[in-house]
């Protein structure tokens, strides 16, 4: 699982450079994100703009990341329609903070 990080003030932006977060990738995704957020007390934004497929294991890994954040909200940016559909069907669009793209996330603008 290829991940990259950018720091913008108190925001840690993690970009996922894969087209799928599924059962095969879920564990390495969680482990990779865990190592990136370990010492980051600020906002965490996952850039999912390259992700074209998210199954139940992938969704579970997003929930696991949210739990790693304790009381902080998990922010998700740039989700494609198919990923947004999964988040909506599972009501996770009400749990995560969704941003239309990374720029909106960095400005702190919630998706309406």
UniProtKB/TrEMBL annotation:
Gene Ontology MF annotations: anti-sigma factor antagonist activity
Cited CDD domains: STAS_anti-anti-sigma_factors (cd07043)
PROSITE patterns: STAS
Highest taxon of source: Bacteria
Listed InterPro entries: Anti-sigma_ant (IPR003658), STAS_dom (IPR002645), STAS_dom_sf (IPR036513)
Residues of the STAS domain: 21-109
Similarity remark: Belongs to the anti-sigma-factor antagonist family.
Name of the protein in its database record: Anti-sigma factor antagonist
């Amino acid at each position: 699982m290829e991940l990259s990080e950018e720091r913008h003030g108190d925001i840690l932006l993690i970009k996922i450079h894969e087209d799928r977060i599924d059962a095969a990738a879920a564990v390495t995704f969680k482990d990779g994100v865990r190592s990136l957020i370990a010492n980051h007390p600020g906002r965490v934004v996952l850039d999912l703009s390259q992700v074209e497929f998210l199954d139940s294991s992938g969704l579970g890994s997003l929930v696991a990341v949210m739990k790693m954040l304790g009381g902080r909200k998990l922010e998700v940016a740039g989700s494609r329609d198919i990923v947004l559909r999964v988040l909506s069907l599972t009501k996770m669009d009400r749990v995560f903070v969704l941003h239309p793209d990374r720029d909106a996330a960095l400005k702190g603008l919630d998706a309406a």
